[in-house]
Specification:
By secondary structure, the chain is of the alpha+beta class. It contains 10 helices and 4 strands. A hairpin with a 2-residue loop joins β2 and β3. The model has no long low-confidence stretch (mean pLDDT about 85).
């Protein structure tokens, strides 16, 4: 199987490129929803005094708050977490809530703080890619394999963000943290593959690729299963832990993207590169 993959290396490269382009189109068409800490607004944690359904509570608060966008984040018994799409001061919210319940905690995030958070996110992602690129070039000192690793990481991130767009997962501090983790994971698996193919000399290139694939896929599948368990557990048992579920689902998308980016795109580019160099033990 691996020999056939190595022979059809152009197809290996084409598949992840097509997937990446499709995901870019999805992102441009659907956009990304921003979390409250990025777009501004208010979050209230309540203890309800009355038996009221979520639609009724949303309608009550939206009406009292002049049509504000209300979203029920979680409900556990009488405990309810609510997101308001605009910055509302606590006094106005208390008046709107009336005797329906009492406020346990309240946090209003203004547009200045949210804009500053977005700038910090852009800088964090930019610096992550810059230092990743420098490190990769220092390790391999060869242009094509280094670019292959960077392209695979970019593809991985695009797939993860595309999954967020499709399933309407908010761009938040938590999801950005997951994206930064994906950059590190993607580079790790790509360096594993590239090191096995370029640095080692035992066996053929196909044999070394197969050994690297066994190790890499075992790591990726184990990580995907762990994140799936975390996501299911948080959704069912601790729905208020939305930060954990956001991190888990973004990592799942990214890890799936990493499989095709590393073992199709990166493998295909390196096979192409070695063929051009005249390596005869492919």
């Amino acid at each position: 199987m691996i020999e056939k993959m190595m022979k059809n290396y152009k197809l290996l490269i084409a598949i992840p490129v097509i997937v990446t382009v499709i995901m870019l189109g999805v992102i441009l068409a659907n956009g990304l929803q921003e979390g409250i800490e990025l777009k501004g607004g208010s979050i209230a944690n309540l203890e309800l005094n009355k038996d009221i359904s979520s639609p009724e509570l949303k309608n009550l608060l939206s009406t009292k708050l002049n049509g504000a966008d209300i979203d029920i984040l979680s409900r556990t018994g009488s405990k309810t977490s609510i997101e308001i799409g605009t910055e509302i001061n606590e006094t106005d919210f208390t008046d709107a809530l009336g005797d329906t319940g009492k406020i346990i905690s309240y946090n209003a995030i203004g547009p200045v703080l949210s804009a500053e958070a977005m700038v910090q996110i852009y800088w964090a992602v930019a610096f992550a890619f810059i230092f990743m690129s420098i490190t990769v070039f220092i390790i391999f000192r060869e242009f094509v394999p280094s670019i292959a690793i960077i392209l695979a990481a970019v593809s991985d991130i695009v797939v993860a963000v595309g999954g967020m767009s499709i399933f309407h997962i908010n761009l938040s501090i938590a999801s950005v943290g997951a994206i930064l983790m994906l950059i590190g994971y993607s580079v790790d698996s790509d360096i594993l593959l590239t090191t096995r193919l370029l640095k080692r000399k035992d066996g053929t290139v196909s044999q070394r690729a197969l050994n690297a694939m066994k190790t890499g896929l075992t790591m990726s599948i184990a990580a995907i299963v762990a994140m799936a368990v975390l996501y299911i557990a948080t959704i069912i048992y601790i729905p208020e832990a939305s930060t954990l579920s956001d991190i888990a689902i973004v990592l799942i998308f990214g890890l799936l993207g990493d499989i095709i980016a590393t073992w199709l795109m990166n493998l295909g580019i390196i096979r192409w590169y070695l063929g051009d160099k005249g390596v005869d033990n492919l």
